[in-house]
Design goal:
single chain, about 140 residues, Porin
Protein backbone atom coordinates (compact mmCIF):
# COMPACT_ATOMS: atom_id res chain seq x y z
CA UNK A 1 0.00 0.00 0.00
CA UNK A 2 1.40 3.36 -1.04
CA UNK A 3 -0.61 6.43 -0.05
CA UNK A 4 -0.45 10.20 -0.41
CA UNK A 5 -2.60 12.40 1.84
CA UNK A 6 -3.47 16.06 2.07
CA UNK A 7 -4.61 17.32 5.44
CA UNK A 8 -6.13 20.69 6.38
CA UNK A 9 -6.64 22.12 9.86
CA UNK A 10 -10.18 23.37 10.36
CA UNK A 11 -10.22 24.22 14.05
CA UNK A 12 -8.95 23.52 17.53
CA UNK A 13 -9.99 23.27 21.15
CA UNK A 14 -7.57 25.16 23.37
CA UNK A 15 -4.11 23.68 22.88
CA UNK A 16 -5.37 20.13 23.46
CA UNK A 17 -7.11 19.07 20.22
CA UNK A 18 -6.92 20.01 16.57
CA UNK A 19 -9.69 19.24 14.06
CA UNK A 20 -8.72 18.43 10.49
CA UNK A 21 -10.02 17.16 7.15
CA UNK A 22 -7.98 14.65 5.16
CA UNK A 23 -8.11 13.36 1.59
CA UNK A 24 -6.04 10.35 0.63
CA UNK A 25 -5.25 8.42 -2.54
CA UNK A 26 -3.77 4.94 -2.11
CA UNK A 27 -2.48 2.30 -4.53
CA UNK A 28 -2.44 -1.36 -3.53
CA UNK A 29 0.11 -3.85 -4.90
CA UNK A 30 0.68 -7.61 -5.25
CA UNK A 31 -2.62 -9.48 -4.75
CA UNK A 32 -4.54 -6.24 -4.75
CA UNK A 33 -4.10 -3.87 -7.67
CA UNK A 34 -6.90 -1.42 -6.97
CA UNK A 35 -6.76 2.29 -6.22
CA UNK A 36 -8.47 3.63 -3.12
CA UNK A 37 -9.72 7.11 -2.26
CA UNK A 38 -10.41 8.05 1.36
CA UNK A 39 -11.82 11.11 3.04
CA UNK A 40 -11.90 11.60 6.80
CA UNK A 41 -12.72 14.00 9.60
CA UNK A 42 -9.77 13.92 12.02
CA UNK A 43 -9.39 14.69 15.73
CA UNK A 44 -5.76 15.06 16.82
CA UNK A 45 -4.55 15.03 20.45
CA UNK A 46 -1.57 17.38 20.74
CA UNK A 47 0.12 17.60 24.16
CA UNK A 48 2.46 14.88 25.36
CA UNK A 49 4.87 15.41 28.24
CA UNK A 50 7.90 14.51 26.06
CA UNK A 51 7.10 17.01 23.25
CA UNK A 52 10.30 18.94 24.06
CA UNK A 53 12.30 15.91 22.89
CA UNK A 54 10.01 14.56 20.16
CA UNK A 55 6.90 16.51 19.16
CA UNK A 56 4.21 13.80 19.12
CA UNK A 57 0.52 13.74 18.26
CA UNK A 58 -2.16 11.03 18.18
CA UNK A 59 -4.99 11.18 15.63
CA UNK A 60 -8.24 9.34 14.94
CA UNK A 61 -9.86 9.73 11.53
CA UNK A 62 -13.38 8.70 10.48
CA UNK A 63 -14.84 8.83 6.97
CA UNK A 64 -15.44 6.93 3.73
CA UNK A 65 -13.25 4.67 1.62
CA UNK A 66 -13.98 4.04 -2.07
CA UNK A 67 -11.98 1.41 -3.98
CA UNK A 68 -11.68 1.35 -7.79
CA UNK A 69 -12.70 -2.33 -7.65
CA UNK A 70 -13.69 -4.75 -4.91
CA UNK A 71 -10.44 -5.58 -3.04
CA UNK A 72 -9.41 -9.20 -3.67
CA UNK A 73 -7.95 -9.76 -0.20
CA UNK A 74 -11.16 -8.54 1.43
CA UNK A 75 -13.04 -11.23 -0.51
CA UNK A 76 -10.80 -13.93 1.01
CA UNK A 77 -12.52 -13.38 4.36
CA UNK A 78 -16.11 -12.95 3.22
CA UNK A 79 -18.41 -13.75 0.32
CA UNK A 80 -18.27 -10.38 -1.42
CA UNK A 81 -16.84 -7.16 -0.07
CA UNK A 82 -17.89 -3.72 -1.31
CA UNK A 83 -16.13 -0.89 -3.12
CA UNK A 84 -17.45 1.68 -0.65
CA UNK A 85 -16.90 1.09 3.07
CA UNK A 86 -16.30 3.04 6.24
CA UNK A 87 -12.74 4.29 6.77
CA UNK A 88 -11.07 4.70 10.16
CA UNK A 89 -7.44 5.38 10.94
CA UNK A 90 -5.32 5.67 14.06
CA UNK A 91 -2.06 7.58 13.72
CA UNK A 92 0.96 8.55 15.78
CA UNK A 93 3.32 11.12 14.32
CA UNK A 94 6.74 12.24 15.50
CA UNK A 95 8.67 15.43 14.69
CA UNK A 96 12.01 16.64 16.04
CA UNK A 97 11.61 20.13 17.55
CA UNK A 98 14.59 21.46 15.53
CA UNK A 99 13.17 19.93 12.29
CA UNK A 100 9.45 20.80 12.53
CA UNK A 101 8.58 20.26 8.85
CA UNK A 102 9.61 16.61 8.42
CA UNK A 103 8.37 13.75 10.59
CA UNK A 104 7.62 10.05 10.79
CA UNK A 105 4.23 8.44 11.22
CA UNK A 106 2.75 5.07 12.08
CA UNK A 107 -0.83 4.45 10.98
CA UNK A 108 -3.48 1.74 11.21
CA UNK A 109 -5.66 1.89 8.06
CA UNK A 110 -9.07 0.23 8.57
CA UNK A 111 -11.94 -0.42 6.10
CA UNK A 112 -15.16 -1.95 7.39
CA UNK A 113 -18.90 -2.26 6.93
CA UNK A 114 -19.58 -0.94 10.47
CA UNK A 115 -21.42 -4.06 11.64
CA UNK A 116 -23.64 -4.22 8.56
CA UNK A 117 -24.33 -0.50 8.08
CA UNK A 118 -22.77 -0.62 4.59
CA UNK A 119 -25.00 -2.95 2.55
CA UNK A 120 -24.92 -5.67 5.22
CA UNK A 121 -21.10 -5.87 5.23
CA UNK A 122 -19.93 -7.32 8.56
CA UNK A 123 -16.16 -7.74 8.19
CA UNK A 124 -13.14 -5.48 8.02
CA UNK A 125 -9.66 -5.18 6.53
CA UNK A 126 -6.62 -3.57 8.16
CA UNK A 127 -3.20 -2.39 7.05
CA UNK A 128 -0.37 -1.02 9.15
CA UNK A 129 1.86 1.60 7.60
CA UNK A 130 4.94 3.67 8.31
CA UNK A 131 5.59 6.88 6.45
CA UNK A 132 7.05 10.34 6.06
CA UNK A 133 5.10 13.48 6.82
CA UNK A 134 5.78 17.01 5.60
CA UNK A 135 4.15 20.13 7.07
CA UNK A 136 3.69 23.10 4.74
Amino acid sequence: LLAVSLNRRIGSYRHLFRFELELQVAKHFERQEQWEGNGAFVVRWLPFWWDGLVDTSFAVGEGLSVASEVPELENDYRDESRKTLNYVFLELDFFLPDRPRWGLLARLHHRSGVFGLFDGEQDAANAVGLGLKYRF
